[in-house]
Every structure is written in structure tokens, then in C-alpha cells.
Specification:
Elements (H helix, E strand, L loop, with lengths): L24 E5 L5 H10 L5 E5 L11 H19 L3 E4 L2 H14 L4 E2 L2 H11 L4 E6 L1 H6 L1 H9 L4 E6 L3 H6 L6 H15 L5 E4 L8 H8 L4 E4 H15 L13 E5 L3 H12 L7 E2 L6
Parallel strand pairs: 1-2, 1-3, 2-9, 3-4, 5-6, 5-7, 7-8, 9-10
The protein binds D-glutamic acid.
The site of D-glutamic acid has 16 residues, from helix 3.
């Protein structure tokens, strides 16, 4: 799939020495999935402020065209930069990373990190046999982003990619176990059972919430890998390299949540999935700055 040019203007990168490092980190996902990455970031970098935007009004991203997801990603990124003055952006969604990471990195005035490269690094480390799998949304898998990321590592690995349409919708409804989701997992993951993989990357940030169901289906011989921790480590490294870490490493960071859909349901399910840091959320209507 080709990525068409987008209208986002190119901003000059400010001198890191002049940046106010007390500004928050911005991150977004189509909905609740990026909270798996937010959890890892809050745990690893407790003194950083965070603004998380869940685009629940327009999820799922995985069944949309990459062009559409790219346009949403650009709009959200611009909103996080202009309204919250974020110092760095985490694209906490594989589909949006596949669709828009390169464009955002080229055009935003701040460093931008995605979840695909960190996930691939963790996957390759977890596999002993070199035969591994990745599951993701239709958009991510058909973009070929994982094949490209693995090829770029120049490692001798065999990667099987599989789309799992339907998983995200269960998580967004707060259903992370039970007969329905297990039945779907058995059906979707069947092609992996004969594949002899020893590691499987959860290549959609929603999937760690289904890890128990997925693990039961693929069996004990397959290590499940999530990109969340590795992304948090990559973020910590990026903050350090760019001189962007919060000046007071002993403070407790503030965490702000924004939803494009109903904020009450976002807060209710979000706090169940993320934990006590999510106490309320504000509404952002797409189309507004
Ligand atoms: N959590 C997102 C991902 O990692 C997208 C899920 C969706 O909205 O389809 O791809």
C-alpha cells in the first residue's frame, strides 16, 4: 500500500537546549489499546507528565484505509502539540504507526516514536528458533510494516503475520475473557497452531488485554511479546538522548486523559484497564483544534 503525501506542514526542530523539558509527553491510540503502553511509561518514567488521547469516536482504525488513519493521526498529533504543547509524541497504536509514523517524524517539531520497531526488537530477542509470528489489525498486517521492520534488522528470521479482525472490538467493549472471545481467538489463531513459532508479538496495543485468552489458544511453547515495555524503554532513551527528560526526576507526574467519544464510558473502562491514574477524561471533538 502506498502512502500518499499529506498536507501537514514541515516545522523546524527547535534547539533542545531551549525546550521546556517540564512539558508533557503526548500519546494516542484509536481507543483503549494505547493504555497498555501508557501503563509501561507511567511505571518506567513516573516523574513525566502524560497526555493520552483515545480516539474512541472513530475506532477501530484497523479496518480503515491507511490514508484515513494517517489523516486522523495527523489531526490528533496537531491537537496534542497545539493544545498541550507536548515535548514528544508516542504513537501508541500499531495501525497509526504503520500509516503515519514516517510522516509525523518528518513534519512535527518534536521527536516521535512508534510501537512497531520496539515490538520487533522485543520479538526477535524472545525467539530462540528464529521462527516467529505477529498478530495485528488488518490495516497493520496488510501494510507490510512488520515485514519491513524485520527485514531492516537483517536478522535470519522467519515471520508469519496474521490479521485478527474482531479482537479490538471486544476490548473496546470491556470484554477480555469468556466464551465469545475464546471462540473467536480459536478461529483466528488456528493458522498459527501448526506453524512451529516459538514467539508471538501482540502487534496491536489492544491485544495485551486478551493475552490470557491468546496464550491459552497458542499454548505454552509460544512466548507472547508485547511492545509496551520495549516502547517505554525506547522512549526513556529518546528523552535522554534529546535532553528532554523532566528536570525533577523525583516528582510525581500528572496524567491527563482525553477521549473523542463518551468521556464517562472512557473513564469507567479506562480506569479498569489502566489503573488508578485514570480518574477522569476530557472530551475532544475531532475537527476542533
Ligand atoms: N490499538 C491499535 C493498534 O495497535 C488499533 C486498533 C484498532 O482501532 O483497530 O493497531
Amino acid at each position: 500500500m502506498t502512502i500518499e503525501p499529506c498536507s501537514l506542514p514541515s516545522h523546524p526542530r527547535p534547539d533542545p537546549a531551549l525546550i521546556d523539558t517540564a512539558r508533557p509527553i503526548g500519546m494516542f491510540d484509536s481507543g483503549f489499546g494505547g493504555l497498555t503502553v501508557a501503563r509501561a511509561i507511567i511505571d518506567l518514567l513516573p516523574s513525566e507528565d502524560l497526555v493520552y488521547l483515545g480516539d474512541t469516536a472513530r475506532y477501530p482504525y484497523g479496518s480503515r484505509s491507511l490514508n484515513e488513519v494517517r489523516a486522523y493521526s495527523v489531526e490528533i498529533a496537531e491537537h496534542l502539540v497545539s493544545t498541550y504543547d507536548v515535548k514528544l509524541l508516542v504513537v501508541a497504536c500499531n495501525t497509526a504507526t504503520a500509516a503515519a509514523l514516517a510522516l509525523l517524524q518528518d513534519t512535527l517539531p518534536i521527536p516521535v516514536i512508534g510501537v512497531i520497531d520496539p515490538g520487533v526488537r522485543a520479538l526477535v530477542e524472545a525467539s530462540e528458533s528464529g521462527r516467529m509470528g505477529v498478530i495485528g489489525t488488518v490495516g497493520t498486517v496488510s501494510s507490510g510494516a512488520y515485514d519491513k521492520a524485520v527485514a531492516a534488522l537483517d536478522a535470519d528470521v522467519d515471520l508469519i503475520s496474521l490479521a485478527c479482525p474482531g479482537f479490538v472490538e471486544f476490548v473496546e467493549r470491556g470484554v477480555t475473557s469468556g466464551p465469545e472471545v475464546t471462540l473467536l481467538a480459536r478461529r483466528l489463531l488456528a493458522p498459527l497452531l501448526e506453524s512451529n513459532i516459538d514467539a508471538l508479538l501482540l502487534g496491536c496495543t489492544h491485544y495485551p488485554y486478551l493475552a490470557r485468552v491468546i496464550a491459552d489458544v497458542v499454548g505454552r511453547g509460544v512466548v507472547l511479546v508485547s511492545s509496551a515495555d520495549e516502547t517505554a524503554f525506547a522512549l526513556a532513551d529518546m528523552l535522554k538522548r534529546n535532553g528532554l527528560a523532566h528536570p525533577d526526576g523525583s516528582r510525581e507526574g500528572r496524567h491527563e486523559f482525553v477521549s473523542s467519544g463518551d468521556v464517562r464510558s472512557f473513564t469507567r473502562l479506562g480506569s479498569r484497564l489502566l489503573g488508578p491514574e485514570l480518574v477522569d477524561a476530557t472530551l475532544w471533538r475531532p475537527g476542533q483544534p
